[in-house]
Design brief:
The complex is a heterodimer of chains A (222) and B (188). In chain A, α6 crosses α10 and α7 crosses α8. Chain A is an all-alpha fold and 222 residues long. Chain A has one domain. Chain B folds into two domains: 96 residues, Rossmann fold, CATH 3.40.50; 61 residues. Chain B is globular. In chain B, the strands form two sheets. In chain B, strands 2-1-4-5 form a four-stranded antiparallel sheet. A three-stranded antiparallel sheet of chain B has the order 3-7-6, with no helix packed on it. By secondary structure, chain B is an alpha+beta fold. Classes of the chains: A mainly alpha (222), B alpha+beta (188). The interface between A and B is medium-sized, with 26 and 28 residues.
Chain lengths: 222, 188
């Protein structure tokens, strides 16, 4: 079973490498959206520092939305998904591997580039760690929750718009905790509470989302 | 030569299938023993694909059950799926992966551990050695179908004995708008 999980992860990463334009689109979208704010709002260092965590988090949310549809779409189109449904390992495990690979490709780059982007906002350097950590804990939750929506809207016409309506409200707790942790850290009261809550969300979503996705996939492939 | 008595390998018991409001078929039963082949013919929309998907557990029948060696497939779950090779309308071949990678993935998903050497050998036997060495699956349809065949066959071979299938008409299964023939293959 471990071999099957590794195989799915390696396969998805290989596909991502061979279609690197998809990965770069999401990353560039994130970079551009975040960079638009200092340009639009003006060079007020105090204001920029205040809005930085919120802007980066909202941009991360939108970027991960952008990537979501791809998570099952091509496997659905070419029949690989049916083979996964009929595979020898439990569907929930296969889904968990796919979501993990998806996060490595679409979430991890955002986490890694966020400290650089935060510098544009005059964000205090000693707080960069908190912001990055909050994204590292939060973006996998976004991928996990988003995968449920992606599975439910699989094969629907106009599924993209529906997916955003379905998933964005569910992202709200992650956004509040994520942006809140960096804000609290910048205000000097420490973002530990929010980070712990984000961690709890991650554990919860990691344990239950794959099974919800598995059920959703079975429903939408009927 | 064929064993047609005893517990059938694959058995459909009183299957009913409705998609939405429309009733596709009802009271459909068949039993297949080892080495038998069922061909199902029917008009468009009469439920051939639905029957195929029901019998491998992709969708649930409205009523009735499918049994594998006497056990309901809903209870067997992965145990049944490990012995199943499903080749559907979509061939599950990724153009961005090489034939060898496609085959390796198909085997792993089916729970068969295939070493790279075995994969290469399987591809060579099917005349796909060139694509195995380097490059992705060539675009023409033929190549895709062959690779799908490879994937299916390799899994099949690993899982059970290979039969030489030579069609010989046998019983007929009832199917609205068409018919199903049960073929008794004889070993070649």
């Amino acid at each position: 079973m471990i071999a099957a999980l590794r195989c799915v992860i390696v396969r998805d990463l290989l596909l991502a490498v061979r279609r690197s334009s998809d990965v770069l689109t999401v990353l560039l979208f994130f970079v551009i959206v975040v960079s638009l704010f200092p340009l639009g709002i003006g060079p007020d260092p105090e204001l920029l520092r205040t809005i930085a965590p919120g802007v980066i988090w909202v941009a991360a949310l939108l970027a991960s939305m952008l990537a979501l549809q791809r998570i099952f779409a091509s496997d659905h189109a070419d029949g690989t998904l049916e083979q996964m449904l009929l595979g020898a390992s439990p569907l929930g495990m296969t889904v968990a591997a796919k979501v993990f690979a998806h996060w490595l490709v679409s979430g991890l780059p955002l986490v890694l580039i966020s400290p650089v982007l935060a510098l544009q906002f005059n964000f205090p350097q000693e707080m960069l760690g908190v912001l990055t950590l909050s994204l590292a804990l939060g973006t996998p939750v976004l991928s996990l929750i988003g995968a449920i929506g992606a599975a439910l809207t699989l094969g629907l016409r106009g599924g993209g718009a529906l997916l955003s309506l379905l998933v964005l409200p569910l992202y709200v707790p992650v956004l509040i905790m994520g942006a809140g942790s960096a804000e609290a850290a910048a205000a000097g009261i420490g973002g530990q509470a929010q980070l712990l809550l984000l961690g709890a969300l991650l554990v919860f979503a990691g344990a239950f989302a794959p099974w919800a996705v598995a059920v959703a996939l079975r429903i939408s492939t009927e | 030569m064929e064993k047609t008595s005893g517990t059938p390998s694959l058995e459909a018991v009183d299957l009913h299938c409705a998609r939405g409001e429309r009733k596709l078929f009802g009271a459909l039963s068949f039993a297949l023993h080892g080495g038998e082949l069922l061909r199902i013919a029917g008009a468009n929309g009469s439920g051939k694909t639905s029957l195929l998907r029901i019998s491998c557990g992709l969708i649930e029948p409205t009523e009735g059950s499918v049994r594998w060696c006497g056990e309901d497939i809903r209870r067997l779950q992965e145990e049944f799926r490990r012995q199943l090779v499903y080749i559907g309308h979509a061939d599950a071949i990724k153009d961005d992966l090489t034939s060898a990678e496609n085959l390796q993935v198909a085997c792993t998903l089916a729970g068969v551990h295939a070493r790279p050497a075995q994969v290469g050998e399987a591809l060579r036997q099917l005349g796909l050695a060139r694509t195995a060495a380097a490059g992705r699956v060539d675009s023409p349809r033929v190549e895709r179908t062959r690779a799908a065949l490879v994937a299916g066959r390799a899994v099949y071979r690993a899982g059970c004995r290979s039969h030489g299938l030579r069609a010989r008409p046998g019983r007929r299964a009832r199917f609205p708008g068409g018919s199903g023939d049960v073929y008794h293959p004889s070993r070649s």
